[in-house]
UniProtKB/TrEMBL annotation:
GO molecular function annotations of the record: DNA binding; nuclease activity
Signal peptide: none
Protein name, as recorded: ERCC4-type nuclease
Residue ranges of domain ERCC4 in the record: 17-148
Gene3D superfamilies found in the cross-reference section: 3.40.50.10130
GO biological process, one term: DNA metabolic process
Length: 169
């Protein structure tokens, strides 16, 4: 299956981690999804991965991690160690691992939505994100809705494909 449309660097296939519990389908993006095991992240493109056939695992050099608002807050609190371990795996990538959150920054800062019943102050979120951005190779992206987060992810994968293509020229 072709990863690129002729000479066009736009991905035609998006790899989706099999452990994704609420997967995006990218129906509006004219790509097909392929469910695979990704070592890091939830979404990647084949050209940015090496595949180990023995373990049937794909090792991305760039990936997007999807987080619902609730998942994001859990990653900051109860599952912090697990998330930092995943972030460490992206340390050597040329581009930061993108973490796309399905809730807006304003919702988090105003203690609304997924924040409404949480015992976490917005300043703790700001401090944690600042520290993680400084210490790990990650970049956070916040979207107003699940649909916008899916589109943001697709655009991040396209951008990475364009950058990779430029590096090869």
């Amino acid at each position: 299956m072709a990863e690129m449309r002729d000479a066009d660097p736009i991905p035609t296939t998006v790899l989706r981690d099999t452990r994704e519990q609420h997967p995006w389908t990218f129906d509006e993006c004219a790509v097909e999804t392929q469910d695979v095991t990704l070592l890091t992240g939830d979404y990647a493109v084949p050209a940015d991965c090496t595949h180990d056939p023995e373990s049937d695992t794909h090792y991305p050099r760039f990936a997007v991690e999807r987080k619902s608002g609730h998942d994001f807050l859990t990653a900051l609190t109860w599952e912090r160690d697990r998330f930092t371990s995943e972030s460490r795996r992206a340390a050597e990538w040329s581009q930061p691992m993108a973490v796309v959150v399905e809730t807006s920054w304003q919702t988090l800062l105003r203690n609304r939505g997924c924040m409404a019943w949480r015992d976490i102050h917005p300043s703790q979120i700001v401090g944690t994100l600042s520290a993680w951005t400084d210490h790990y190779n990650v970049a956070f992206h916040f979207a107003e809705s699940r649909r916008q987060a899916e589109l943001c992810t697709y655009l991040l994968l396209v951008r990475r494909s364009l950058l990779r293509r430029r590096e090869q020229i």
